[in-house]
Design brief:
The structure holds three protein chains of three kinds. By secondary structure, chain A is mainly alpha-helical. Chain A contains 24 helices and seven strands. By secondary structure, chain B is an alpha/beta fold. Chain B is 37% helix and 29% strand. In chain B, the strands form three sheets. Chain B has a six-stranded mixed β-sheet, with helices on both faces. A four-stranded antiparallel β-sheet of chain B has the order 11-12-10-13, with helices on both faces. In chain B, strands 2-1-4 form a three-stranded antiparallel β-sheet. The relative contact order of chain B is 0.13. Classes of the chains: A mainly alpha, B alpha/beta, C mainly alpha.
Chain lengths: 609, 298, 131
């Protein structure tokens, strides 16, 4: 009986379509951290210590999925009318939820461990991954059981404020637990595991024979809205108030219709979570990686789909489609832009304080080199990085080819750093490269000789080293401000929404949104097709070792930089172009939207009507 | 005669101060078909859910076959068939799968009856419930509810929102099931035409109480609607004060009053009390009775 | 034979059925010994609760109109002519009762009413002879 109930359970039924995107989140964001660790790009957050900081990301994905899978639902109405013991129903629901969470965790773990295998070394130790995921597994069990604690006899907890607060506290509390215990031997997962078991058993045993649709005690309510009053003979009164009596009423109605569903706020919370997560100050600087834009595109699609699913409520009213379109599109764009810009601001602040140009030993590769942010690398499209000599020709040097790496297996393009200094270079070369790097990154001139004098020292074997105190450019030179972010900002902002708007204009057609009428649940995904394709494509490429995420990120950064620098006109002109392009795309999409048919109500789907 | 279903003084409120049911008591004997009537929000669904054990009454008790549905839910559910207005069948299961599920859970499942009903409804076994229309889904629900030959059928607005053809189908199916043998039925419905055909007895709920509990035939024979012209010092309160008057309403041209007496006696009564000779009294149909009683209490 | 019932009428369904059976017997369309449709068939056909049909049949049996045989359908009870005549008159009286009311309410005199009745009966007979 129980296995069959589990198979019918909504958490399991919804698992498959969510397994892939769910894993996407967990994997991508956790693996960002792996990259940062691997390339020694994260100051102070090495190895597992830092890894635990990202526990909130997979836990967030799990929490989101559990909510979607109906963590507050104890049994389905249909099952309650059948002669099935209440305990059986309860148990099957609990097991289904836990299994679905473990499925998510399992796939995340597998992906991470696969990364280890591909990279060829243990970026994050297996025991550590095991420990984190064991904790997450036990934590999921505990969370599911805790959600059954309030009023165990109820069919389902209504998702009102009190319930959501309780669930949020459970989520946050368990996150804290995971944070504390992860990293300790995996056996420590027994603690929440045992708690879950014990609590679950106690609830199981004390369950009443049958469940209730509504609690026994009536809740203290507002006085009833409708009172039965004796009918009076009413003479018709002319309507005296004018139609513009309450202008905000119309705004509020559209807003609440489109975004009143709690899922929307969760989606937006995810927005911010992701942006914060990727904006962690590290020079991998994933803010401009294509994956970020792909994710923003996905989330824009999600909010648009959610709003449009309510179209059948608004369409009969005398509201212009233009207005509804504005409500469906603008909030998403606004939040995406604000989030992104906010993250950019934070990043810029961080950048102002951190060493962007450095001469140090690479923690993994082992050689000493000049380090610059990814954006300032270069791409050799034909596979041949120009010899250092061609970039800069010091008279005493032999030509030496810059270190390069293939961008994507099978293609000739390579990624290289034009500021690379070969092992054993004399201080003059190093100083030259550092000077050039400073000029590129900070747009400031510091003569090579000065750099050599202040910071470099010749070692006994002829190699160059840094004097005690390090390459303290920022302290010694005031006015060193990185300028790239400002220049790339207009293009980045454009990338947030413009491709999506154009894609929206091309896919929003008479038939598109009617897919809901055929009850095809993947209709909204249609809008998200391209980014999903990209994300999966990139994931697959990582998995088989064709490329790595930082290489693709570097590619994006470099292209962005080159395009931004190539754009003509001053800053104002650039922003004007951005506004004009956005406006054009918006109007185009809006024109298409005006003509679509109202999607039919879907009776069962992500968004319950 | 053992009572199949008995409500005793049921009180239920969802929000404090707003009593949906305030002391509802009635019972069904074996083989009775009772129509539960009431305005929207009168508590019909609540009452049926209390009978199924899905809700608990704050005061009072309910018994099915002498058992408490909350203490012994399995024993009760095995003998009860339940159809609710909301579609609670899982949309992803096929018709065949749902029937198989019920076959497993109900030891008294009758395959022949199920096949008969299935053929009669014209259901395709492979169709997923989510793709069926409302009427077809309701038919599946009825099949599942009746297929195990329950001793009691609880139907919550079974024909709600269905087209007239479907409604007649439902009615005929219900009659056939009654003919099959001895099922007790409690159903709530707004379609009084169907209630008049199907029900032997009618219970009207109003403001949480049983306003009327009477065999349907009695309603025709022992109640009368009086249409009293205005004037002549006749007031609504005056009518209400008369012995046997259940409800009185003021209309534009006349006063409508329902009396618990046949039309002749009512005429005589009115003549005696108020000296009215122009009152028209006649037997009252169920729908009119409903409207007069539910509207007249204000 | 066809029965029709109107569930919305003022008259309860079982009573309508009873009257129809009595009428059919009195007018000769149902003869003594004829079988009546089973409760099941009739309830299905008319779309009413079988209990209603049972009730009607039970009352008819009590009134001596129908006869029950063990294991077999109900049949019309044999009547002698005297009983048949009484039946017919009873039916007529029932039908005439509202007409009597109407006559009184309209304030038409006895003789007037009888004259009108006579004229109508004569007309009906003439029409039938012409056919």
């Amino acid at each position: 009986m129980i296995p069959r109930l589990i198979l019918r359970d909504r958490a399991i039924r919804r698992l498959l379509p969510w397994l892939l995107p769910g894993v996407l989140f967990g994997f991508m964001l956790a693996s960002n951290q792996q990259d940062a660790v691997r390339h020694g790009l994260t100051a102070g957050a090495h190895g597992f210590q830092g890894f635990r900081y990202v526990a909130y990301l997979p836990w967030g994905a799990i929490g989101f999925y559990l909510l979607y899978g109906g963590i507050a639902v104890r049994c389905e109405r249909f099952d309650a009318t059948l002669p099935i013991p209440q305990r059986t129903l309860w148990l099957s629901r609990v097991l289904a939820l836990i299994l679905s969470a473990w499925a998510l965790i399992g796939t995340m773990a597998v992906k991470l461990l696969l990364r280890n295998r591909i990279e060829g070394f243990e970026v994050v130790g297996r025991t550590q991954v095991g420990s984190l995921f064991a904790q997450l597994a036990a934590a999921s069990a505990l969370a599911v059981v805790l959600a059954r604690l309030p009023r165990p006899a109820l069919h389902a907890l209504a998702l009102k404020r009190g319930t959501i607060l309780y669930l949020a506290l459970v989520w946050a509390g368990i996150l804290g637990l995971v944070f504390l215990l992860a990293g300790d031997p995996p056996g420590y997962a027994l603690l929440p595991g045992v708690a879950a078991l014990g609590l679950g058993l106690w609830i199981y045993v004390s369950l009443p024979a049958s469940s209730l649709i509504a609690p026994l005690e009536p809740k203290a309510g507002d006085p009833p809205a409708v009172r039965v009053t004796p009918r009076k003979v009413v003479v018709g009164k002319p309507i005296e108030e004018t139609a513009t009596g309450n202008r905000w009423l119309v705004h509020a109605t559209i807003w609440r219709t489109c975004y009143g569903h709690w899922a929307f706020w969760l989606v937006f919370a995810l927005f911010l979570l992701l942006l914060m997560g990727v904006a962690r100050p590290d020079p991998a600087g994933n803010l401009n990686g294509l994956s970020v834009f792909a994710l923003l595109w996905l989330l824009l699609s999600a909010s648009f789909s959610l709003a449009v699913s309510r179209l059948h409520v608004l369409d009969p009213l005398p509201l212009s489609r233009k207005r509804i379109f504005a409500y469906a599109v603008l909030p998403g764009l606004l939040v995406a832009s604000l989030g992104y810009l906010g993250a950019m601001v934070l990043r810029t602040g961080w950048e102002h304080r951190s060493t962007l140009v450095d001469y140090r030993r690479h923690p993994v590769a082992g050689d000493v080199d000049v380090h610059v942010p990814l954006a300032f690398r270069e791409i050799g499209w034909d596979g041949e990085p120009p010899p250092v000599k061609e970039l800069y020709v010091p008279p005493w040097e032999e030509p030496h080819y810059a270190w390069s790496t293939t961008l994507y297996k099978g293609f000739p393009a390579v990624l290289y750093s034009p500021y690379h200094v070969p092992e054993g270079s004399p201080p003059e070369t190093v100083a030259e490269q550092i000077s050039r790097a400073v000029e590129a990154v900070y747009d400031a001139r510091i003569p090579a000789g000065e750099i050599q004098r202040r910071y470099l020292v010749r070692g006994s074997d002829g190699s160059t080293g840094v004097q005690a105190g390090g390459l303290t450019l920022l302290e010694d030179y005031s006015g060193l401000k990185p300028t790239l972010w400002l220049r790339t900002a207009p293009l980045s902002v454009l990338l947030i929404g413009l491709p999506w708007l154009l894609y929206l204009a091309s896919t929003v057609r008479g038939g598109y949104l009617c897919a809901a009428a055929d009850r095809r649940p993947w209709a909204p995904l249609f809008l998200a097709g391209l980014p999903v394709l990209y994300l999966f494509g990139s994931l697959w490429s990582y998995s088989v070792g064709y490329t790595t995420s930082w290489k693709l990120t570097a590619l994006a950064h470099i292209l962005l930089r080159k395009l931004s620098l190539a754009l003509p006109g001053g800053p104002i002109a650039r922003w004007v172009i951005v506004v004009v392009l956005y406006g054009g795309a918006y109007l185009l999409a809006q024109a298409r939207f005006e003509r679509i048919e109202t999607p039919a109500r879907s009776q069962d789907g992500f968004v319950r009507t | 005669m053992t009572e199949i279903l008995a409500f005793k003084d049921i009180h239920r409120a969802y929000v404090r101060g707003v009593n949906v049911l305030q002391g509802v008591s009635f019972s069904l004997g074996q083989g009775e078909v009772v129509g539960l009537l009431g305005k929207n929000g009168a508590g019909k669904t609540t009452l049926l859910r209390i009978a199924m054990g899905m809700l608990e009454a704050q005061r009072g008790a309910v018994q099915l076959f002498g058992l408490d549905p909350r203490r012994e839910p399995l024993a009760v559910k095995r003998r009860v068939g339940y159809v609710s207005e909301e579609q609670i069948l899982p949309p992803f299961l096929s018709v065949r799968a749902v029937i198989a599920l019920h076959r497993q859970l109900f030891p008294t499942w009758d395959d022949d009856l199920a096949a008969q009903l299935s053929a009669r409804f014209g259901l395709s076994p492979r169709a997923k419930i989510g793709t069926l229309s409302k009427g077809e889904a309701r038919q599946v629900a009825l099949l599942c509810a009746a297929g195990h030959r329950p001793e009691l059928l609880l139907l919550d607005e079974p024909a709600g929102g269905l087209d007239p053809v479907m409604r007649r189908e439902f009615l005929e199916t219900a009659i056939d099931l009654l003919n099959e043998g001895g099922t007790t039925v409690l159903f709530s419905s707004h379609y009084l035409f169907d209630v008049e055909r199907l029900a032997g007895r009618v219970v009207m709920l109003h403001e949480g109480r049983v306003l009327l509990d009477s065999p349907l035939d009695d309603l025709r024979e022992r109640y009368a609607l009086a249409l009293v012209p205005r004037g002549d010092g006749v007031t609504r309160d005056g009518l209400l004060a008369l012995d046997g008057c259940l409800a009185a309403r003021e209309r534009a041209d006349a006063l409508h009053a329902v009396f618990q007496a046949d039309p002749r006696r009512t005429e005589a009564l009115l003549e005696r009390e108020f000296g009215i000779t122009g009152a028209r009294c006649r037997a009252i149909a169920l729908e009119e009775m409903f409207i007069e009683l539910m509207g007249g209490q204000l | 034979m066809l029965f029709t019932v109107d569930p919305q009428s003022d008259v309860p369904v079982y009573r309508q059925l009873m009257e129809q059976v009595k009428f059919l017997i009195a007018s000769g369309q149902l003869e003594p010994g004829d079988e009546l449709p089973s409760t099941r068939t009739l309830s299905s056909e008319l779309g009413v609760n079988p209990m209603t049909i049972s009730k009607a049949y039970n009352y008819l049996e009590k009134d001596g109109v129908l006869e029950r045989r063990p294991g077999l359908p109900l049949i019309v009870k044999a009547l002698d002519d005297g009983q048949l005549q009484v039946r017919k008159e009873d039916l007529l009286r029932e039908s005439l009762a509202p007409i009597v009311d109407m006559v009184r309410q309209l304030g038409i005199g006895h003789k007037e009413a009888l004259r009108i009745l006579g004229e109508m009966l004569d007309d009906a007979q003439r029409e039938e002879e012409l056919r």
